[in-house]
Amino acid sequence: MKKGRELLVGSYRRLHQNTIHFSPTHFHQTMSHSDSPNRYSFSPSLHWNPQLHQYFLNAYGADHFSRISAALTRPSRYSCIRVNTLRSAADAVIEKLRPLVSNVSVAVQPEFEDVESNPLKECLEDASAPFSKCRIPGLDYVVFVWGSGPHRIDYGVAPPKEVIVSRKCAEAVLRGAQVYVPGVMACSAHVEKGDTVAVSVAVEQQGADGGWGIPMTRGTVLQGSETDAYYFERNGLYIGQGTAMLSRAGMFRVSEGVGVDMKDRVYDLHSFHNLLEGEIFLQNLPSIIAAHALDPQRGERILDMCAAPGGKTTAIAILMKDEGEIIATDRSHNKVLDIQKLAAEMGLSCIKTFKLDALKSVCRRDDIDTLTDPCCNNAKNDVTNQVFDSPNLEVEIVSPIVTEGKDEKTNGRVYVSRADARKNMRRARNGPGRNQSVGGRVDRSKGFPPDSFDRVLLDAPCSALGLRPRLFAGEETIESLRNHAKYQRRMFDQAVQLVRPGGVIVYSTCTINPGENEALVRYALDKYKYLSLAPQHPRIGGPGLVGSCEFPDGYVEEWLRPGEEELVQRFDPSSPLDTIGFFIAKFVVGSKDT
């Protein structure tokens, strides 16, 4: 493990530690449009906004950012399973999964051999085994399931019958999923059930108006010629081949189900959909480490802001042995229901969920005044007690959307505005969507009193530029990243007020953007003098970025100062650990009176 740690940290040591001056350029990565022998391969490249690309070049250096950008286009070559230790153990889970997970396929040849082996695989008795327990101290309940790739796929005589899928569908397939019907965009003519089809991806392209999209109608017929939609744009974007589970007509007639059963994949990873529910949870390694960094103790009262879908919430609850109280909040009704469902599946009773905007996590003074004195005092002085039987909470029961109805007082007619009519049409066409409740009961909170939690986890909404695989990044700009950072600072301001003196705040993101990571740490330490960075355990991530960045408009983005870089964890997607891009900072709250 020490060797892997040195390899990982070494890749960060050369980063700039002086002020960086930003100068815009129009350079960005391009993709070949020639119909070369490599057409039926997987060799994607990310298209970045030119100014954003230059910003990252300055932050990381050209070589390092090139490696990061390439790593983002491919998945991690292993799956990380967190075992619910209140119900099972790692060895028992491995035995249950063993019959369901075959060894990595050897029918296809790897396109290249790894230059650096993953340190997580060191000291394994059988390096070819599909399973291994994590050897990081304290994480022996984590199981790695190893995959492989990239592989060369034999597509037979060109041109093969083809299916084009959406970019989001392709990213899921690269992680081990099947091709589901909603993700199919186009298909060759005369495809019948049982045919072997090559699967390629349509990545968003920039239009004349500057917007991004796919100028293709779903259901487009492919003829196998250069006149086909996205013919040249699909060069090097083939993710494997499989068996059509429906005819071409069937794929565009039904609304759900598997469209293509993937047989040969560029990346061979295992799917754990609906397997051992309640016993295991598929989660990225840095996310598990973020829960450990919080160091929750039994009997404590903990707040998980922006908690959906509940992975870190349940990880914290298990570390606490389900003893104590975890408040999990999210602004979305449906996402709160997701947290409730996951907690119930895992048999956890210490988790209480609420619908609450993170920017309103601290209740207003007049709301505090409406609380009974004993509850208010307990909330401030005994943080393990509850304040939930107060007027500060409301119950929200939302039924599924009804688009038709009658009103007896208006002769059976209900007035519907044109705007509502358009919304109803979109709902009928697209389904409920994230912002439309599917029904269910959740509690609404008006916030919590200051100093009422022992620890707070703020896994902030972010640009998500560390998630893998990522085949598109064109929409993010310098301005959009600054807006993310402003939003995160406002949420952090709420978190600081809610933690009692002596408590802990853990801030994390899944982005490679220093403006949402190191710059937030600088903001926190400069504004709140009673905050200090604390060591994290376990620590396998690399150090943070030291220095600053000056933009053409005069704005200076301050990062870490010398000596602070080793107190944060930055997970590099191009490192031998092969994780997503992730960032963790841990703060200890001192006396707020000073």
Structural summary, described in words:
- There is one protein chain.
- With 594 residues, the protein is of the alpha/beta class.
- The protein has three domains: 50-106 and 119-146, no CATH class; 162-265, Archaeosine Trna-guanine Transglycosylase, Chain: A, domain 4 (Roll); 284-364 and 443-589, Rossmann fold, CATH 3.40.50.
- Helix content is 24%, strand content 22%.
- It is built from 14 helices and 26 strands.
- A hairpin with an 8-residue loop joins strand 3 and strand 4.
- The longest helix has 21 residues, at 478-498.
- The protein is globular.
- 43% of the residues are buried.
- The model is unreliable at 1-35, 103-109, 372-391 and 399-414 (pLDDT under 50).
| Total domain count | 3
Distance linking N and C termini:
42 Å
Q: What can be said about the biggest beta sheet?
A: 10 strands, mixed
Cα-atom radius of gyration: 25 Å
Write the layout of secondary structure elements.
Elements: H1 2-10, E1 19-21, H2 50-60, H3 62-72, E2 78-83, H4 90-97, E3 131-133, E4 142-146, E5 162-166, H5 167-174, E6 179-180, E7 184-188, E8 196-202, E9 205-206, E10 212-213, E11 220-222, E12 238-244, H6 248-251, E13 258-265, E14 280-282, H7 285-294, E15 301-305, H8 311-319, E16 325-330, H9 333-345, E17 351-355, H10 365-369, H11 373-381, E18 393-398, H12 418-430, E19 440-445, E20 453-459, H13 478-498, E21 499-509, H14 518-527, E22 531-533, E23 548-550, E24 556-558, E25 568-571, E26 582-589
Helix pairs in contact: 2-3, 7-8, 13-14
Protein name: Methyltransferase NSUN6 isoform X2
Active site: 510
Binding site for S-adenosyl-L-methionine: 306-312, 330, 357, 459
